[in-house]
Amino acid sequence: MLNKAVMNGATFHKGFVVLQRLMDSFSNRLLLVYCCLGILLFSLYQFQINPDGVSYLNIAHLYAIGDFHDAINGFWGPLISWLLVPLILLKLQPLFAYKIVSLTISFFTFIAIRKLSYRFAINEEVRLLILIAAIPMLLFYAFLLVTPDLVLLCITLYYFYYIFDADYSKKATQGFIIGFLGALLYFSKSYGFYFFIASFSLFTFIHYLQSKARQERINVVLAYIFGLSVFLIISGIWIYTISSKYQHFTIATAGEYNIRFDSIGSQGQPMVYQGLLPLPYSGAVSAWDDPSRLTIDYEKSPRLVDWITYQIIHIVENGFSALHYFETFSIFSIVILLIYAIRRSGKRFRNAEERNQNPEDARKIHSSAFYALVTMFLYTSGYLLLHIEERFLWVDAILLLLLCGYVCSNHFDFVRNAQLRQFLFFIIFFSFTLSPIKQLIQHVNVDRNIYMTSKQLQTAYHIKGNIASNTNWDETLFYAYFLDGNYYGAAKEKITDEELQGELGIYHINYYFVWNGVCRLSECRKIAAYEAEHLVVYQIITTGSG
């Protein structure tokens, strides 16, 4: 017994020593701080949901119950839904499970940022500022949306860690890891498929040109062959699966939908103006579970000059939107990019290279910062052709943060006063936290009222079934999801009572949610009213055949 106690004591002591050594690193302490903040803030954002999130959560539910035919979806990337399945099988509510998964993903994203920062010539003081700034950014990404963009960001950063390696040309076998990461990018979001091929091909070309020895060039080519082969084999399984379901070859149906959505004459999302819409399959929550089934009204054959003009205007508008989002990430974004561009092309930059005694650091200065800039341009360009939102550019936000760290470490010598320089660094990195902190504060307990009201309706009136509304498509969708119902959408804006009665009958609507108004149909029986939400819930007593 004594020996056993001693052994246990020794084991405990060894574990304590290991933990103590880990905590000796300030970045590890920041990681612990991030975990604690995530746990403490969890309850404030646990009910947040969005339309895309409803689809991802429902697809995960379908996988969990074994309905693979309906779960396989060409529009929504499968990876985030796959990650939710184990927790759903443990009887966790899907939305709650997502919050756990998103926090876990953000944990590994924090580690990825730290690892990737060592690919840049950044001093330790600035690196710590980067990691501090990343904490509110990642908390914002984890809590504010149910989206695959966070897992896409995480995987992309690990991909960058390998592709930005100064010794890339010496390790052909890295191609296997890169190919696997590329497949995960595709599974995260269909955009990852195209970005990976473009990025991997571009960096293969860059590394090939930078390689001086014949063996290094061979390694670069082999890495490309290995990586592309692994990527296509793994991705091909999913491509075959969704192509078989939709009866035609497709990498993803989202691209085609977005092209129609952004075409000349498009009236926007069909749910806004087409009235009630059928579900794509019986297990769907709404028509948004598979948007590829929807019909978008747009001008099919515009004149070539009109099409070209429209595309130019569309790209320019998206370009200004991207610049706006960059300024949202940090008000110093454009300034940092300009400083880097000016310094890189000037004599001082070259003199700094000559003064650098460590050739490996010199290679980093030549490479990683430039790689980040090229990648930001490439990554953003794809979205300029289609549709752009802030969350699409989270990858750019992290690269911009790292590029800012690089510029502060190497190109701020024009500020002579050391204390002033440190103060400027603090202001610059603090600017990256302003928007995330503001968003976190503004969205405390967001959608909590919808969840609580849904539970009241479920408990008091046992509401479950087919639901429609007069307006507020998003909010009613959330109610339908929390009520475990099916949402057929919002009625057309100027629909007559007779037409509305017919549509309610066609889709066998059980409950009609009326926002800021009343239901004039005789079939409507008022069962609940919520003045704070300006919502009245009606039960449909009888419905006609239409």
Name a few traits of the molecule:
5 strands; 65% helix; mainly alpha; 546 residues
Task: Spell out the blueprint of helices and strands.
Elements: H1 2-24, H2 26-41, H3 51-64, H4 68-71, H5 79-89, H6 94-117, H7 124-143, H8 149-163, H9 174-188, H10 191-210, H11 214-246, H12 254-261, H13 270-273, H14 304-329, H15 333-345, H16 347-355, H17 359-384, H18 394-410, H19 418-442, H20 448-461, E1 466-469, H21 473-482, E2 486-490, H22 497-506, E3 511-515, E4 524-530, E5 535-540
Parallel strand pairs: 1-2, 1-3
Antiparallel strand pairs: 3-5, 4-5
Number of E-state strands: 5
Radius of gyration: 27 Å
Helix content: 55-70%
Q: What does the largest sheet look like?
A: 5 strands, mixed
The largest sheet has its strands arranged as: 2-1-3-5-4
The helix/strand class is mainly alpha
Strand content: under 5%
The poorly predicted ranges are 1-8, 15-20
Order of helices and strands: HHHHHHHHHHHHHHHHHHHHEHEHEEE
Straight-line N-to-C gap: 82 Å
